[in-house]
Design a protein that fits this description.
The protein has 535 residues and is mainly alpha-helical. Among the domains are: 49 residues; 98 residues, Hypothetical protein af1432, CATH 1.10.3210; 73 residues, GMP Synthetase, Chain A, domain 3 (2-Layer Sandwich). The chain has 16 helices and 8 strands. The strands form 3 sheets. It has a 3-stranded antiparallel beta sheet with strand order 1-3-2, covered by helices on one side.
């Protein structure tokens, strides 16, 4: 039994007995009726008269007969409870002391472990400090040994200089000279061998690269020529084109910016304009007007406006297709529109968009084979002729192309490719040379460019006439389709120095007076022959 349980049993009967006592010491009976009181209404005077003094009745408590026994039982129970409480207190105390002893043992054990670890750490620190001291001593010893070695070395060198009568630099130079003499023959043989191997491999490699590049550079395009002639269904169509008092043809020329020539033939109209895009717009517009039959200034304005919008989309799509075909993306839209104008631009009959596509493929292949920067070569080939479609008219296409490339923030190596693809400037790197080679292969290959036969013959005659105007020249021949002029001098009327000076004069005059594709090589030959017959 617990301490609180004993207390409840001790005081339980006493409280119950108190509830059973009544006034006068008699126990209360269960079920007794409660007295009922009635209230009477009286006047104030009657109430004062009826008040009588009442007697106070004193109730003396009556002690039950077994109270002594109850008290003894309670005291006995109290003693038992006290004894049990003391025993429980002793048990709790002993348990607490035992737990305290166990915790103390654990703390002592942990302290011993920590102390052991600290001791080991101290030992390691001592070992490390000892090693550091030893290393520091060895370091000082090594420094002293180096100083001693340097001193001994200086002594030995001085003694050698005294014995050999050479200074240190003189002895070094003598050794190098002897070594060079010994290895010069072997070095020359090695260099000669490597040069021969390089020349042999270079020729084969160049042939392989060029053949492979031309094979991969083959395009689906065929030679295209500028069509500036519109065929009419009948002679009556010319009257509609001219209009009353020439108002239709004047409106057409004013709106399109081209010149209309009606005197070519009865059923043909020739359109001429420096801008190929405007000429193409005029050609398409005129064909539509002739087909429609309604040729008047208002209708001309509507048709030309519509064709111009279609042409803008056409040039943009052509520029996008060209960029995608060569693998160039994210170019500015305006720059792609300019590239799309290549579709209507021709150089000696060679379509620029076909030439650019072919050249770029060749350049990319050469860059891959030689390990060059492919992106630089690709952009250089793509934009090398961008100046030919510039809206500006002053300056060569190289200068205009440089301006356009700088306007669109192209990298400097790409600008150098544009500036150097006609050797106007010295080559700044192998990528620029690759662009030049690719351009030369695409433009100079047979069948790439078309020329009128009469103009071709005229140019050959002009090249020969320029060379023959000098008195030292005996004969001149334009060979290799006009790409070379072979000049033979009279040996009696010329000197050896005239060969170089005359070639420069003829070259400069050809540059000024002749229009030609690619380059023209001037070769001047002077020789003296002597022959006798022995009989």
């Amino acid at each position: 039994m617990s301490f609180f349980g004993n207390l409840s049993t001790l005081f339980g009967p006493t409280q119950q007995g108190k509830r059973q006592q009544t006034v006068g010491g008699q126990p209360a009976q269960q079920g007794a009726a409660k007295p009922k009181f009635q209230k009477h209404k009286r006047n104030k005077k009657q109430h004062q008269q009826d008040v009588r003094p009442q007697q106070v009745q004193v109730v003396t408590p009556v002690i039950p007969e077994n109270i002594q026994q109850i008290r003894r039982d309670a005291e006995a129970k109290a003693r038992e409870i006290i004894v049990e409480a003391k025993s429980e207190a002793l048990q709790l105390r002993s348990k607490a002391e035992q737990e305290q002893r166990e915790l103390g043992k654990q703390l002592e054990q942990q302290q011993r472990i920590l102390q052991a670890k600290l001791d080991r750490i101290d030992e390691r620190l001592e070992v490390i400090s000892t090693k550091e001291e030893q290393l520091e001593k060895k370091r000082f010893e090594i420094v002293e040994l180096k100083q001693d070695v340097e001193k001994e070395k200086e002594k030995v060198l001085k003694e050698l200089e005294k014995v050999s009568t050479f200074t240190r630099d003189e002895a070094k130079e003598e050794l190098l000279q002897r070594l060079e003499k010994k290895l010069s023959k072997e070095t020359a043989l090695f260099i000669r061998q490597k040069e021969e191997e390089a020349h042999t491999e270079a020729d084969e490699k160049v042939k392989e690269i060029l053949i492979d590049a031309m094979k991969h550079g083959a395009t689906e395009y065929v030679p295209e020529y500028t069509i500036s002639v519109v065929t009419l269904p009948s002679e009556d169509a010319k009257g509609k084109i001219i209009g009353k008092s020439g108002r239709n043809i004047n409106a057409f020329e004013r709106r399109t910016g081209v010149d209309v020539d009606l005197d070519m033939s009865p059923t043909e109209v020739r359109l001429s304009c420096f801008d190929p895009v405007r000429r193409e717009i005029a050609r398409i517009s005129l064909e539509r007007l002739v087909k429609d039959g309604r040729i008047q200034p208002t209708r001309i304005e509507e048709v030309v406006d519509k064709v111009e919008k279609e042409m803008a989309k056409t040039t943009l799509e052509a520029g996008k297709k060209l960029c995608h075909d060569v693998g160039v993306f994210n170019l500015p839209i305006d720059l792609m529109k300019m590239l799309g104008k290549f579709k209507f631009r021709f150089s000696y009959g060679q379509n620029l968009i076909a030439h650019t596509l072919e050249e770029t493929k060749i350049g990319i292949k050469i860059a891959h084979e030689l390990g060059l920067d492919v992106n630089t070569v690709k952009l250089g080939c793509l934009l090398h002729d961008i100046g030919k479609v510039s809206e500006e008219t002053e300056g060569s296409h190289v200068e205009l192309g440089i301006k356009i490339a700088k306007r669109y923030n192209m990298p400097q190596p790409v600008i150098d490719c544009i500036a150097q693809h006609h050797e106007d400037e010295p080559f700044s790197g192998p990528e620029q040379m690759a662009v030049y080679i690719a351009d030369a292969i695409s433009g100079a290959r047979p069948g790439a460019r078309y020329e009128n036969y009469d103009e071709y013959v005229k140019r050959l005659q002009q090249l020969e006439e320029i060379a023959m105007q000098y008195k030292e020249v005996k004969q001149a021949y334009a060979i290799q389709a006009g790409r070379e002029v072979r000049v033979l001098l009279e040996p009696e009327q010329s000197k050896d120095d005239d060969v170089k000076s005359l070639s420069l004069k003829i070259r400069d005059e050809i540059k000024e007076k002749v229009t030609y594709p690619g380059t023209v090589t001037v070769t001047v030959i002077r020789e003296t022959r002597g022959s006798e017959i022995a009989k």
